[in-house]
Design brief:
It is a single chain. The protein is α/β, with parallel strands linked by helices. The protein has eleven helices and 14 strands. The structure holds phosphoenolpyruvate and manganese (II) ion. Phosphoenolpyruvate (PEP) binds next to loops. Phosphoenolpyruvate binds next to loops.
Length: about 350
């Protein structure tokens, strides 16, 4: 259910509706919009006493949310959500989902301080808004490089102080989530963990914006439901990420499903970005699919960049070099205005 407040409803009116919802043993999620506040109700197993809510001051109407994902749906929040990242510890404050498209770039994995700082400086110079880099890596093989862990987070913090770029990095379990939420500006939940419901709930309580990547074989509804897990705990700062799904195609690592972008825009208020690096797995396809991602309406892209891809400890074949990244940025700057965006 959704309580729609009148345009001029006061904060007190919103708070008293929320208290009434809590008295019913339910959870209230007040979501202010551009013109009015909506209050999502979760936790009900049966009907909600609608008349009681409708009689409260400031309430315009009480409506049924038809989608199974509630807080992530456009019905609850008709305006697009802008997720703010950074603004602390020397990092710039960056909006995701507004007029400006964001580019997150960096190595697949943090390998050494020198490697990460070299790449961070290069992507900053080319105009990236956020630095990515895994300290905790979810690898297919247990024998592959698993990431530097806490040491990797310390290197990322150094890169943030030096470049002013906010950091986005992955948490692979509830233990790493604590460290990542403490030190990073945005917490990435990877494709393999999209349906790790315990981790999603914990991310909903971690206090940092979340970058939620689509699972390897997840439907759109499953992606929304995963976002709903995070939001149901009170964290509405969620950015979705398309990173390719498994198909029979073998000319790419995954099949980048760009059609999901307009589908998300129609059904949800959450921003969505595209990761053409994991989406294709091949360096030569990263720039074309990045251009396509902006053209199709994505709120940004996430790209893996490495100055020495041949010696990279993970995902070398899909990393573009700093020069290629700078050339791509120049093209994206020309594409953005065509779709009424800035870069
Ligand atoms: C990553 O971005 O480093 C990553 C592991 O991506 P995904 O979870 O999409 O495979
Ligand atoms: Mn990678």
């Amino acid at each position: 259910m959704l309580v729609v407040m009148e345009a001029g409803a006061t904060r007190e009116a919103v708070e008293s509706v929320c208290s009434e919802i809590r008295r019913m043993g339910l959870t209230a999620h007040a979501m202010p919009g551009a013109t009015r506040t909506a209050i999502g109700i979760t936790g009900n197993t049966g009907p909600v006493p609608r008349a009681r809510l409708e009689s409260l001051p400031g309430v315009l109407e009480v409506i049924q949310v038809t989608q199974p994902w509630k807080l992530a749906s456009r019905e609850v929040h008709p305006d697009p959500t802008v997720v703010w990242v950074g603004g602390e510890r020397g990092a710039a404050r960056v909006p995701i989902g507004g007029a400006r498209v964001v580019v997150m770039a960096g190595p697949c994995a943090v390998e050494t301080a020198e490697q990460t700082l070299t790449i961070a400086r290069a992507v900053r110079e080319a105009g990236a808004a956020l630095l990515r880099g895994g300290a905790f890596k979810p690898r297919t093989s247990p024998y592959s490089f698993q990431g530097l862990g806490a040491e990797g987070l310390a290197i990322l913090s150094r890169a943030r102080s030096e470049t002013g770029l906010p950091i986005v990095t992955e948490a692979v379990d509830t233990e790493s989530l604590k460290l990542v939420a403490e030190q990073a500006d945005m917490v990435q939940l990877g494709a393999r963990n999209m349906q790790n419901f315990q981790l999603l709930r914990a991310a909903g309580r971690c206090g940092k914006p979340i970058l939620l990547k689509r699972g390897l074989a997840a439907t759109l509804e499953e992606l929304f439901m995963a976002a709903e897990y995070v939001m149901s705990e009170g964290n509405y700062q969620v950015v979705l990420c398309e990173r390719g799904v498994r198909t029979f195609a073998d000319h790419t690592r995954n099949t980048l499903d760009l059609s999901v972008v307009p589908a998300v825009k129609r059904l949800s208020h959450l921003p969505i970005i595209v990761d053409p690096s994991h989406g294709t797995g091949r360096r030569n396809k990263v720039a074309p699919l990045s251009r396509a991602a902006l053209a199709v309406g994505a709120d940004g892209i996430m790209v893996e960049v490495h100055h020495a891809p041949e010696t990279a400890l993970s995902d070398g074949p899909q990393a573009i070099v700093p020069g290629e990244f700078a050339a791509l940025m120049a093209q994206l700057r020309r594409i953005a205005p065509v779709v009424d965006r800035e870069l």
